[in-house]
Design goal:
Blueprint lengths: L1 H14 L3 H15 L3 H5 L5 E4 L10 E3 L12 H7 L15 H11 L4 E6 L4 E6 L3 H21 L6 E6 L2 H7 L2 H19 L6 E5 L3 E7 L5 H14 L6 E7 L1 H16 L3 H4 L5 E7 L5 E6 L6 H18 L5 H4 L5 E5 L8
Parallel strand pairs: 4-5, 7-8, 10-11
Antiparallel strand pairs: 1-6, 2-9, 3-4, 6-7, 9-10
Amino acid sequence: MEEKVLQSAKSYFKHQVDIEQFKRDTYARLELNQGDNYGVTIIKRSYAVRFKKVLTLSGAAVLVLSLFIGSAFVSPAIAQVVAKVPFFGQIFGNKSDIIEQISEELIAKGYKVTAGVSYPEKVITISVDGSEEYLNQVKNDVNQIASNILHSSNYDAYKVKVVLSRPKEIEWRLSEKELKHAGIIEDINEKLNTQGYNVLEMRYDLPKKLEIGIPDTETRISEMEQIVKDVLSENGISDVYLKVKKIDMAELEMDERWRGILDLVGEDILGKKDYKVRMVGYSIHSEPEIQAFITLSGETQNTRDFAKQLEKVINDFLRSEDMKTKVGNDSYHITIYNKENKIVN
């Protein structure tokens, strides 16, 4: 289960951008990961590009979830954390996630950095652009700024790592052919947009195959396929396996809405140790589900009690007045997994 969630998360976070952003972020991610397995997966031959920040519809995507409501029957550990968080009115404004806050603060202070976080390790890696000498000069200050931001939010579960970016290694990994293929996808998307097509996503492994996701209301399939084949032909690509996939827009709307619900409340549950959560996820199949993976082992009464209390905190928030219009009439369930990925609630 954990591996499934992690893989889904990698797919989402790698490809939720437009083509130009895809190019920039690929460099940044390779720079950030500096040769680990996560960085390598970015340049596998199969790519997925989603336009207009459309979310994946398959499986659960790891993301961060915060809990800003108390419960009369929660454990002392959870109660202490909940007591420190703001009232609901304070969290429904323009709230950015903790990585965005750290990045914006560092950039505002003149540092050229790329920041990211890994789960379930909860390591925030800040990659500094410059020389080794420059890194040594600013490393402590960068670390301190990030730590102060975490401390101001009472996030004690994260570790901060400041490293040097490696642009040469990035250039070696990302081939000219891969950038060319990304450009072709950009051209296809532009041509289709000018003809009034709403392209939601593209998955490609050029020159072998290309899959395009469009709304299930679109009927001009053959015309669309011809436009795509013409662009490919102009770039010397023929005999490509082309598939046009219709996406259920009602299902997509639900996916986006539930992602918005979880994005809204931020990442407190992962940022604070007392919640004992190593990662969380969500799915909309066959009904919306929130998944929380805790650090407690086994299926003891203590583990089950904690899981039930955590479930109640999440449920209380989703049933609050502020969330009624967002949750709507959707039925949903909350699943808590222990360290061995077994359901304990």
